[in-house]
Specification:
By secondary structure, the protein is of the alpha+beta class. Helix content is 42%, strand content 12%.
Length: 583
């Protein structure tokens, strides 16, 4: 919301109130017919506007997901994506001021959802809830999300039947030190006591493999700036190997045992910067790190030009093709003796993003039916294939085999192992990835079990998939990882996983004062962090660290830190409470 953010706090409040007061949204429809069962068919075709704060696609949904929705609901989805439109909250504000944000709205709970309810732009779904049997299976989360709204206005996403103290991530945690396992093996599987022990090993790996097959140089580490926010994003990742995650300028440990100020000289963040600095001194950091974006980095991983990945969904996704893994090549988790990897517990009350029906929707009952379908097993498989690794539509990408176990079809195998596949015309045609759901949200976490099959929605956990991906790479990794067949199995059996209970905690929005201070400080943190990584020597590294700390302090770092620290402790209180109640 660029125009508004430049205004003082009072002005911002006045603008928001004025927009809502001036909008044409109606009060929730108290006369809506109460339904206990949705129709099996919808005779009139409609196109609904979907204002989706998570979508990265703008326009009418196409491909196989569009065909499923049209066949079931006689409905097309016109996706309105602020991420694509740009301009921050400009599109949101414009549509709110017009009194019609969308027919289906995917938006964060808290300030925005409260605004929509107060302004009459959100419809009360209470009349339809009796028919929303799939959503009602997660009634605890639904009631929790709406307890202060005076009606049923939002359906939380990423709900789960898994206990909040259990990982939500399937066979791999979100974070972890992943290396080119084949090249690590070439060095004799050296033991690693701690993070810094990686550097001499990566040096040997790089020296032995200076050039990729495409003729380009190989670097152990390659960084990027796209996602920098409160800090240099790639400098936070190693902190997650030790149980920490960020909340503003705080690194909070998953079990609440420690809170670190980002800029303390002995913080995990500064440790990471020193790790990258030392790596650069050894010639291990890609010199294009300061200018490349994530897409370029991903291509380098695909081409074998990078040896280390912070996430399985980068190194493995890009490089572990069927051809490479059959040849024994690929990324796998490397064991570090003192690692204690952060894991997100299943969110007891769902994620902060919610599904809302707009008060101006022409056919709210049909939209309620569509939302409910997204929480059915069929909807979960189909909607979250690209965002959460669910298997896709039964009959297209998977089917039950003779043993009544789910198994990927030939097309599903192509999609899973090669990244894309051509879709038959009867399913809508086109390329599989292009036809995937553009909603870009997960309704039920993929690790949940489909009661009809007894297996997870995530195909990577299926025994049939595990057998499919048995390769020289996986066999060698398992042989050197105590016989574990998955990353999660190894970490849990070695007590190297720290699960943050899923409490669905959302920190309160920054006041305009905190926001203004944060924006100044984080720019300094990001700028100096990059300079420190590429400092010419350790004296300059330490000098830049001191300058960063001094300048940040002068710009109000301590005030923002105090705000973040309070939120971090509230987050831990919520985690402990949900673990005690539901864990």
């Amino acid at each position: 919301m660029k125009l508004v953010r430049k205004m003082p706090v009072v002005a911002v409040a006045v603008v928001a109130a004025t927009m809502l007061a001036g909008c044409t949204g109606s009060e929730p429809d108290a006369e809506a017919k109460v339904v206990t069962e949705f129709p099996e068919e919808w005779s009139e075709p409609i196109t609904i506007d979907v204002f989706d704060s998570l979508a990265n696609y703008m326009g009418v949904q196409e491909g196989w997901f569009a065909k499923i929705v049209e066949d079931k609901f006689n409905m097309k989805l016109n996706i309105i994506a602020p991420n694509v439109a740009g301009g921050g909250d400009t599109l949101y504000n414009t549509r709110v001021s017009a009194g019609d944000l969308g027919d289906l709205i995917i938006v964060d709970r808290g300030t925005k959802l409260d605004e929509l309810v107060e302004g009459g732009l959100a419809a009360d779904m209470t009349p339809y809830y009796g028919a929303m049997t799939n959503v009602a299976a997660y009634d605890t989360a639904v009631q929790h999300a709406n307890e202060s709204l005076g009606g049923l206005y939002g359906i939380p996403t990423s709900v789960s039947s898994i206990k909040p103290t259990e990982p939500s991530e399937g066979i791999d945690p979100t974070f972890g030190p992943f290396v080119r396992w084949d090249l690590y093996a070439d060095q004799g599987y050296p033991e690693l006591g701690t993070l810094e022990d990686l550097l001499p090993v990566l040096k040997k790996m790089q020296d032995a493999n200076p050039t990729a097959d495409n003729g380009e140089p190989v670097y152990a580490l390659s960084l990027f700036k796209d996602w920098d926010g409160n800090m240099m994003v790639t400098a936070k990742q190693p902190a997650c190997f030790y149980g920490y995650d960020e909340l503003g300028f705080v690194l909070a440990k998953a079990d609440g045992s420690d809170y670190q100020s980002l800029l303390d000289s002995d913080s995990e963040y500064i440790r990471s910067l020193k790790f990258y600095f030392d790596a650069n001194q050894m010639g291990l950091v890609d010199p294009e790190s300061t200018t490349q974006n994530y897409d370029t980095l991903f291509s380098k991983f695909q081409n074998g030009q990078v040896l280390f990945s912070w996430w399985p969904w980068l190194g493995q996704t890009a490089f572990n093709t069927a051809e490479n893994t059959a040849a024994g090549k690929g990324f796998e988790l490397v064991p570090i003796d003192d690692q204690e990897i952060f894991s997100y517990g299943a969110e007891a009350y769902g994620a902060k993003t919610e599904m809302v029906i707009g008060s101006q929707a022409e056919d709210p009952e049909r939209i309620a039916a569509f939302i409910d379908w997204l929480y059915s097993a069929e909807g979960v498989y189909a909607n979250a294939n690209q965002t959460a690794g669910t298997a896709g539509p039964e009959g297209l990408t998977w089917e039950l085999n003779a043993s009544n176990e789910p198994e990927l079809t030939e097309l599903g195998q192509q999609m899973a192992l090669e990244g894309d596949a051509a879709v038959p015309e009867e399913w809508g045609g086109g390329e599989y990835v292009a036809g995937a759901s553009a909603l870009n949200t997960t309704t039920v976490v993929a690790a949940d079990v489909d009661p009809a099959t007894g297996f997870s929605f995530n195909y990577k956990t299926w025994p049939t998939y595990q057998a499919l991906v048995q390769t020289p790479l996986s066999e060698d990794w398992s042989a050197h990882m105590d016989g574990a067949t998955t990353t999660m199995e190894y970490l849990r059996s070695n007590d190297q996983l720290l699960v943050a209970p899923g409490a669905s905690f959302a920190a309160p929005a920054d006041s305009s004062e905190i926001e203004a201070l944060r924006n100044q400080v984080k720019a300094i943190i990001v700028q100096y962090s990059w300079q420190m990584v590429f400092a010419k020597d350790e004296a300059e590294f330490n000098s830049l660290l001191s300058e960063m700390q001094t300048q940040a302090s002068g710009l109000g770092y301590d005030k923002v830190l105090e705000f973040d620290m309070t939120n971090a402790q509230a987050q831990d209180d919520a985690r402990k409470a949900v673990a005690a109640e539901l864990g």
